[in-house]
## 1
Amino acid sequence: MKKIYVALMALSLVGMFFSSCNNGLESTADPATQPIAGKTYRANDAGDAYVKFTFHMNYRCTMEVKEDGKEPVSGSYYEWWMSPNDPEVFIRYAQGAYNTQTGESLSGKELLSGTYDTTAKTVTLSGDIDGKHVNFTLTEVQ
């Protein structure tokens, strides 16, 4: 009987350990201090081309790209970060992301960085994608 109680105590300790871990994905962004949270921003190119970012409340980020005359392509293997009350914005690859051509792990690598303009409600991002430097000025989608 004593062994059962010891085993239950051990299991409860293990359960508390795993339930108290926070890997960031259970976190919820605060729109009052992180104004991009839960919103979508889009940059239009010429024609019907665009790039669009959705900054989900759980710090995940979805990027959608549409080229002229083609169907949109989207990916949700990104995470975003913005310190509370700070205009800097970072987008990085989520845990488990990898380069499908080389097999290289991309987990945690920064993809784009920039700033949020509270007056214009725009996000300006820049970085290197596929060896090409890009700059985006994104406007909030209503």
## 2
Amino acid sequence: MTALAAAAMADVSPAGDCIPPPGTGSTRRTARGYASGKDDYLRRLRKVEGQVRGLQKMIQADAWCPDVVIQVASVTRALQEVSVGLLTDHMRHCMMQAAHRSPAEGDQVLAEAASTIRQVIRL
């Protein structure tokens, strides 16, 4: 098990709750929204990893620039799909639960989601 995986597992309590990683500024305890689709996300990320290795081989082989750029765009789209899926899962699970608990908590997670979206679209 990698140190990253061990750290992630350490955040999860037996009840399936977790604490956001240190440094995120969040102290709420929520279950991760992507938990049920974790295997799918890991599969997608392994595919992206393979695509990036393919890009490295293309550069090493002096592939034609437009072909490399098209493959970079493909990797970028694949990562964007992972991001959209994670954010959707977060909204369905974490945000909905927080909104049901209290309007104030709903407002807090909505602000966090808006901040995340702002960071993503600043590409």
